Amino acid sequence: MSSAQDPFYIVKEEIQESIDKLLSTFHQWERIPLDTGEQVHLTKELLASCESIEWKVDELDKTISVAAKDPSWYGIDEVELDKRRRWTSTARTQVGNVKKSVVAGKELNGTGTATMNGMRREMMRMSNPHQADRSNQYASQENDDFISSESDRQLLLIRRQDEELDELSASVERIGGVGLTIHEELLAQDKIIDELGSEMDSTANRLDFVQKKVAMVMKKASAKGQIMMILFLVVLFIILFVLVFFT
């Protein structure tokens, strides 16, 4: 795999750009007078950049450890692995030295410019990649372990939040299904009530028509005919009642 296609070199280039920007900001921080608002702002920016770069270098170290388990699978050899380890070690040392100098400057902000300048010159001497001391790696290991544990903790929190969101989404879907079922039941009941109302109106119209006809016949019929008609109407009413309410 060529360097242009190797993910390691892509990430390495991004980290190197961040380190270059960090060093440029650090040099600007050195030239700013003490106890100024701009210095406080740059101090916060430098510390945040250091934390971010250290985390990226730590993640890159993890990929190197994975590749070291089976170098042939990734198309690299021990020489390349050692080269990558040296680069991450140098990058961590550079960032660690900047961070130490900025933290020391923050804590000793009122002790004098001469002391600060000497401290910064010492930091720049130590930050030279070719003069990186192996002891600096051990000194920064504790900080690297802390950042790694914080990264793992953040990933665990994110994973737990994702699980809780999944459970909440499932609950919302269940509630939505219940609401849809209730809506369909209400529509069905409304349809039944409308049909029953239509039947009642039709029956009432038929009864009204029959009553009018009966009144007309009773006016023309005799007493005996009226009795027969009443009996007929009673029977008819009973039949209609049974048809409407029992069928």
Would you summarize the structure shown here?
With 247 residues, the chain is mainly alpha-helical.
Describe this structure in words.
This protein is mainly alpha-helical. The chain has seven helices and no strands. The protein has helices spanning 7-31, 37-69, 71-74, 78-107, 113-126, 134-220, 223-245. Helix 1 packs antiparallel against helix 2, helix 1 (7-31) runs parallel beside helix 4 (78-107) and helix 6 packs antiparallel against helix 7. The longest helix has 87 residues, at 134-220. It is rod-shaped.
**Gross morphology:** rod-shaped
pLDDT < 50 stretches:
112-116, 126-136
Mean pLDDT: 77
Order of helices and strands: HHHHHHH
Q: First CA to last CA: what distance?
A: 84 Å
Number of helices: 7
Radius of gyration: 45 Å
Our estimate of the beta-strand percent is under 5%
What percent of residues adopt helix (DSSP H or I)? Answer: over 70%
Structural class: mainly alpha
Per-chain topology:
Elements: H1 7-31, H2 37-69, H3 71-74, H4 78-107, H5 113-126, H6 134-220, H7 223-245
Helix pairs in contact: 1-2, 1-4, 2-4, 2-6, 4-5, 6-7
Task: For this entry, give a set of tags.
247 residues, 87% helix, rod-shaped, mainly alpha
